[in-house]
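Translate structure to sequence.
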C-alpha cells in the first residue's frame, strides 16, 4: 500500500525531513516482524498534508479503509494532532498517537539535531518558538514567566540560535501547541536538558512504562504561577538534577529516538 506511504513534504520542526510515521513504515516494511495485530501502512500526517490539510477529496483512502477485512485486528501510528480523520469506527484498530488523539501515547519525536551537551549552563529555563496566535497555554506561560530572572523567551530566532539557547539551558519550557504536547520534549532530552511539560490535557508517552518526573517536570496550567520558584528550588539539589539529566539521556535513546520508539511499539505488538 505504498500509495498511502506519502513521503514527508514539510519540515516541522526545522531539519525534521522525515517524520516518525514514515520512518516506522519504511523500517517495518523492510523488517516485516510478525505482530499480533496487522500493521495499517498509512503515513497519516503526510497524506493529510498532501490533501490540503484534509480539505481535498480523501475518498481514495476511505475506499481502502472500507475494503479491509473486519475480522482482523490492526494497529497504526499517527502523528496528526486531530487523530485519524477518516471513518474507522467499525474497524478493530489500535492507534499509537503522538498528537493527542488515539489509544496509546508515543512521543511527539523528531530526527536528531546533533545538539551537544554543554557543561556550564547559564540559562535557568528557555522557550524558543511561536507564541502569538497559538494555543492559550503558551500565552499563559508567557504572561507568568516573561521577564523573570533566568528565563529566556524568543520567537524570531535562527535554528542555530535555537540550538545555542537550548543547550545553554538547565530546563526547557515545553508548552503544548495545537496538539496536546510538544516536539521540545524530545529536543530537550536529546540535548540533555530537563523538559518542563506545560499542559492542560496531559498526553504523556509510554506512561505505563515511564515515570515522566524521573526525567522531566510536569506543570499543569494551574501551577504556572509557582513554576519559576519551583525551578529555582530544584537548583538546590544538584545531585537530583544530574540524575534527571542522566535518566533523560537513557529515555531519549530507548523511547524518544526514532529507533528506540520503533522498537518499543513493535515489542508491544509482538507481545
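Result:
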Amino acid at each position: 500500500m505504498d500509495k498511502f506511504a506519502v513521503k514527508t513534504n514539510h519540515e516541522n520542526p526545522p531539519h525534521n525531513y522525515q517524520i516518525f510515521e514514515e520512518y516506522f513504515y519504511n523500517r517495518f516494511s523492510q523488517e516485516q516482524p510478525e505482530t499480533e495485530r496487522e500493521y495499517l501502512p498509512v503515513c497519516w500526517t503526510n497524506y493529510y498534508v498532501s490533501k490540503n490539510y484534509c480539505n481535498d477529496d480523501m475518498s481514495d483512502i476511505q475506499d481502502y479503509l472500507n475494503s479491509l477485512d473486519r475480522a482482523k485486528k490492526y494497529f497504526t501510528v499517527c502523528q496528526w494532532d486531530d487523530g485519524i480523520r477518516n471513518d474507522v469506527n467499525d474497524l478493530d484498530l489500535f492507534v499509537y498517537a503522538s498528537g493527542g488523539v488515539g489509544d496509546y501515547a508515543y512521543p511527539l519525536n523528531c530526527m536528531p539535531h546533533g545538539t551537544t551537551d554543554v557543561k556550564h549552563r547559564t540559562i535557568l529555563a528557555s522557550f524558543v518558538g511561536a507564541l502569538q496566535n497559538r494555543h492559550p497555554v503558551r500565552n499563559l506561560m508567557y504572561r507568568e514567566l516573561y521577564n523573570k530572572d533566568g528565563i529566556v523567551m524568543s520567537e524570531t530566532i535562527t535554528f542555530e540560535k535555537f540550538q545555542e539557547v537550548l543547550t545553554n539551558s538547565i530546563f526547557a519550557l515545553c508548552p503544548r501547541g495545537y496538539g496536546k504536547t510538544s516536539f521540545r520534549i524530545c529536543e530537550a532530552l536529546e540535548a540533555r536538558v530537563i523538559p518542563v511539560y506545560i499542559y492542560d490535557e496531559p498526553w504523556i508517552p509510554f506512561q505505563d512504562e515511564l515515570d515522566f518526573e524521573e526525567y522531566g517536570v510536569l506543570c499543569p496550567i494551574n501551577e504556572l504561577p509557582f513554576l519559576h520558584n519551583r525551578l529555582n528550588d530544584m537548583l538546590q539539589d544538584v545531585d537530583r538534577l544530574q540524575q534527571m539529566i542522566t535518566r533523560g539521556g537513557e529515555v531519549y535513546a530507548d523511547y524518544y529516538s526514532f529507533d528506540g520508539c520503533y522498537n518499543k511499539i513493535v515489542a508491544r505488538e509482538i507481545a
